[in-house]
Amino acid sequence: MEIPFRCDLGCLNRADGSARLCIGGTDIMASVTGPAPVPARKESIDKATIEVSLHKKIGGVLDNAETEIEVLLKHTLENCILTKLHPSTLITVTVQLMNVEGPIFGVALNAVTLALLDAGVPLAYTPAAVTVASLAPSEGAPAGMCCWPTKAQAEASPCVAQFVFSNVLPHAAGAPAPAPTTPGEEPANPPVEVVSCHLAGQLCPLESSAPQQAGAAALVQLSEMARESSLGVWRFIREALANKTHSA
Amino acid sequence: MDFLLAALKEGIRVDGRAPTEPRDVSFSFPHERGHAEVKMGNTRVLACISAEILAPYPDRPNEGILSFTTDFSPMASPAFEPGRSSERGIEISRVVERGIRETRAINMESLCILAGEKVWSVRCDLHVLDDGGNLMDCLSLAAMAAFLHFRKPQLSVAGDRLIVYPASLKDPVPLTIHHVPIAVTFGLFTASNLAVLDPTTEEEAHMDGALTVTINSRGVICAIQKAGGAPITQPQILALTGQAAQRAKQLVAILTDALKATGGPAAEGEPEWTHEAGLPSVPAMPAAFASGPPAAHMPALHTRPILAAPAPALSPPAAANPSPSPAAAASPAGAKEAEGRSSPPPTPSPTPSPTGAQKKKRGPPTSLRERAAGQK
After folding, report:
1. Among its keywords, does the record have rRNA processing (chain A) (predicted)?
2. B329 and A169: CB-CB below 8 Å?
3. Fold of A5-247
């Protein structure tokens, strides 16, 4: 089954960078403004301050789960954006939920990544987020996993995990430089690192006979599936940006 | 700035429009009933209607409840700060609300379910996505578009019990809307003696005053807002209300066409996507992980030596370097090879204690930071 990915890069005029991303049925618009002058109370003299605000469609006050998403986004971005390059400035990231059909964080982070690339904010790496869910066995379908679960799948799933991967591995001074890849060719099985991970639920059934091993194995499977899917996400981001520069 | 004012003196607007020419308007209803997105030139706004059943206000037991919230998101303009609305924001949201509530555009008695006990509370959430000027008009248009697009579930009352039918059983019904009031704003420029329709952000920044007329498609004036600014004569106001009436008629016609296109329950008016692709829900996995718990293949996670992977070629003077990263960040090939081994590999360089060997999923990839620090 294919999950449709649709993005509208640079959809807003006033923001420095913006993107509207729709994965499956979850539609999120993200905008980035900055680096901009910062009021003294938020100022950091050695790096840029990052502010993330999440806006729901209906109702203004965020509950704890939604505030958690804001916090996760902020911490992930604090690692990803090269904040030391712009000290004493403010980078404002705004996320507007347009339609929610499943877990939000993965889609929100990918939308924010596209907006950051659109704005030209310097990043240490391009983060890619993937949401995976393990599917409980039901009649006619064995236990399994899928990426980008729908609302119904996520609610029925015993375990939903959202991973954020970084695509740049540091290489040591003195080590041979990685072989240059010709454009269009992807290295087989490129190495990635996990920047953030948000997992909720049970990795294996409570009454399993060897819970630690089963849980560890399930975690490995989920993260491997997420890693495979993240390659697709990076490809999508690359193509979306290429389209933008061609049409600009 | 002088350029804009000088051009206006000659009757030309910076974006090429005539003084009475508005920007193009487009509507989009991509998601559920009551979700309306409106674009007026560069100004972009989202309106969302929702309804729930609540107890009515004690002084109005036969009427439903109507509430508005406007969110001036920092996404729309660097001038909007998250949190409190500015004066301008409050003025704009009040004009929009007044135009709909005080003109009784929505029939409140029809929202009553059980007098004194249960009524529909309809909520209109407006979000400003992009401030390209003339937010009042765009917001009021979006609110009315959303109200017209919205459907509330059908009900039946059996004695004390209230049955709310889901959309799958009975089609939801529209709200009872008497008329469609739309705000039309003019920017006033005294030096050029011009009132420009549908000002952009630059024009708003330089105008001497503004007049907003909320009017419906039949020409009935519903509200007027002129908060200070350059004084104008009564005949001028009447002339502008005439123009506003024409504009409102035009807008309601465009809106009616856009709503007709949404006829069925399916969403219409998809946003314009610049790039689309499909990714598999279950990606093809490398063979090693496709089947069963591959416990034999994976090392125990806690000994995965990512941060302290050895580089056998490294010379001992690495002791001078306090950070483990140059030693740890061996070439990717080295790290991958280390994965396959089940025992922790030997560490020739004097790296910190084996606690460094634990993969910290929480922390950042330290080597990049140190590399940046090393470059300073």
Report:
1. yes
2. yes
3. Ribosomal Protein S5; domain 2 (3.30.230)
